[in-house]
Design a protein that fits this description.
Number of domains of chain A: 1
Number of domains of chain B: 2
Number of strands of chain A: 0
Distance between the termini of chain B: 17 Å
Distance between the termini of chain A: 36 Å
Largest sheet of chain B: 6 strands, mixed
Helix content of chain A: over 70%
Strand content of chain A: under 5%
Order of helices and strands of chain A: HHHHHHHHH
Number of helices of chain B: 7
Oligomer: heterodimer
Radius of gyration of chain B: 18 Å
Strand order of the largest sheet of chain B: 6-7-8-3-9-10
Shape of chain A: globular
Largest sheet of chain A: none
Structural class of chain A: mainly alpha
Order of helices and strands of chain B: EEEHEEHEHHHEHEHEE
Number of strands of chain B: 10
CATH superfamily of the largest domain in chain B: P-loop containing nucleotide triphosphate hydrolases
Structural class of chain B: alpha/beta
């Protein structure tokens, strides 16, 4: 019994330490960027735009396929079920809840973890093993401001933009695809969507995507920097970065949703 | 030494990598080296008939393979933090300095790694020009002119637009050596400078270092190496790294508690 309590305690402590170390890295990278007298905006924008290109632009084909598939499937399923129940007018509400609040942010984050989180962890891990990080330090360039900060910023911008793109393609592209077999009028569909969208949806969307981007790229950078000296550590930290990012992003999205609905219930006076 | 980098000082310094035996244990060391009081034991290997700087300004660190001379160089350059003990530059403890506080010292140090140390996503030219442009040492045009002149001198011009994966190990090593002096350092740390580069290139590089010394910009060079082919271009003081300690003469000699007394 005590052994299990002891193990759980150790697990909890190590996870809290891990979170604190990642948060410390974020703080230090922001501090280093603000204190760095030499690193101009041009240098940061260069790395940020490269990150947006690799994370955002190059992921568009994959996101398009996923968005079209998930959008059309959700629209088809929900429209047929809602028609049977006589609630076709609720399709907008259902799609906003599913796509804008839940599936869009989570699926986009998972795609970014798989494509870019792993790439960032591998890249930084290899830089560490090739002594590129030490080389930057030796020429007076702080790796936290030169490597970590622009990747987190670029990653956050990419995730927000990608998720917005995902939602648009899923809702509009998905609808156009379903027109092949379902004859729902476009005006009716768009009206239903516009009426369903509220400021809470934008708030949730921004919270989920912004923090997911921060979580993914912070963990990936942290794991990459955790490589000590050897190339054989790189695949290990990459796997850890991917697994930790997936767990963290999923838990975060779930927690935000739960907190949001508790808050809604409190506002309605049910709790 | 110059106005900025006046002294380097170890106090009971110990260093070990995680989970490994200590490479350095309770080491005391001071630079500039003064031979006062150690004449009987220190006999620097002077190579006659060399145009040279005072030998106390060129320090060769020698030790058996794996003794930790590269690590010692990295500690001296502030790239590794000692596990215990103190490293003082101008009397200020390095371990208490933030990256920003250490930066003025860092910018006056040049470091050439034994292997690796170039950014793989940049060309040879971009690797060389990065420190100059990043720290606004000179205008981008002037930086380009300086780098191209240097690359021409070392016959690297044909490879300037190639990334490091596409050039030979000798060209990479030469680029690392050139980058170490690109910001006109006061102290230069060269880790195995002679491996992978030709005698001719070594000679040209040594000539370049002499020019920097004569210009008054370069004040001291630390060289970690087994072979004499490079450091024989200079008069030098040798210190030996053996059994986790620094010695001023070869094998079983008197341990240097403080080289300068």
């Amino acid at each position: 019994m005590f052994i299990y309590i002891d193990k759980m305690g150790r697990l909890l402590t190590s996870n809290i330490q891990y979170i604190i170390r990642v948060l410390l890295m974020i703080y230090l990278s922001i501090r280093a960027t603000l204190l760095d007298q030499h690193q101009g905006l041009r240098t940061i924008i260069g790395v940020v735009s490269a990150q947006i290109y690799f994370t955002g632009w190059q992921a568009l084909p994959l996101i398009s396929v996923l968005a079209l598939a998930s959008g059309s499937i959700t629209i088809l399923q929900s429209s047929s079920e809602l028609s049977l129940l006589g609630g076709s007018g609720m399709i907008g509400n259902l799609l906003v809840v599913i796509m804008v609040r839940e599936v869009g942010p989570l699926l986009t984050a998972l795609v970014v973890v798989a494509r870019s989180g792993s790439a960032v962890a591998t890249e930084i891990g290899n830089m560490r093993a090739n002594r590129e990080i030490e080389a930057l330090e030796s020429i007076g360039i702080n790796p936290l401001s030169f490597i970590v900060f622009p990747r987190i910023v670029g990653g956050v911008i990419s995730v927000i933009c990608l998720c917005f793109y995902f939602v648009v393609i899923a809702l509009i592209g998905g609808f156009l695809l379903t027109r092949i077999i379902d004859e729902m009028p476009l005006n009716f569909y768009l009206d239903s969507l516009v009426q369903a969208l509220s400021k809470e949806d934008f708030f949730l969307f921004l919270i989920k995507t912004g923090f997911s981007g921060t979580i993914i790229f912070s963990i990936s950078c942290y794991q990459g920097l955790a490589v000590k000296r050897s190339h054989h550590e790189v695949p290990q930290v990459t796997t850890k970065a991917v697994v930790d990012s997936i767990v963290a992003v999923t838990l975060f999205n779930m927690s935000v949703t739960v907190l949001f609905y508790i808050q809604q219930l409190i506002m309605l006076g049910d709790v | 030494m110059s106005a900025l980098l006046k002294s380097l000082h170890f106090e009971e310094l110990t260093f070990h990598y995680e989970g490994q035996e200590p490479l350095l244990k309770n080491v005391n060391f001071e630079f500039p080296i003064s031979r006062r009081g150690t004449q009987d034991h220190s006999a620097p290997c002077r190579i006659p008939d060399k145009r040279s700087m005072p030998s106390s300004q060129v320090v060769v660190i020698r030790g058996v393979q794996g003794a930790g001379s590269s690590t010692l160089m990295q500690i001296l350059a502030g790239l590794q933090t000692p596990t215990s003990g103190r490293y003082l530059i101008n009397g200020i403890a390095v371990e208490n300095m933030s990256f920003e506080e250490f930066l003025p010292f860092r910018l006056r140090m040049g470091y050439a790694f034994d292997t690796g140390g170039l950014l793989s996503n940049r060309t040879l030219f971009e690797n060389l020009v990065l420190p100059l442009n990043y720290h606004n040492i000179c205008s981008p045009q002037e930086a380009e002119r300086r780098i191209l002149a240097l690359m021409e001198r070392f016959q690297l011009l044909n490879f300037k637009d190639l990334r490091i994966a596409y050039v030979s190990a000798s060209l990479r090593k030469m680029t690392v050596l050139l980058r170490s002096i690109i910001m006109d350092p006061e102290i230069l740390f060269l880790d195995d400078p002679n491996i992978r580069i030709s005698k001719e290139a070594q000679h040209i590089y040594a000539e370049l270092l002499r020019e920097l010394i004569n210009n008054g910009t370069l004040h001291a060079i630390f060289i970690a190496s087994f072979e004499e082919s490079f450091f024989s271009y200079f008069d030098y003081t040798t210190i030996y790294l053996e059994e986790r300690q620094l010695f001023n003469t070869e094998r079983s000699c008197q341990k240097i508690i403080a080289i300068s007394q």
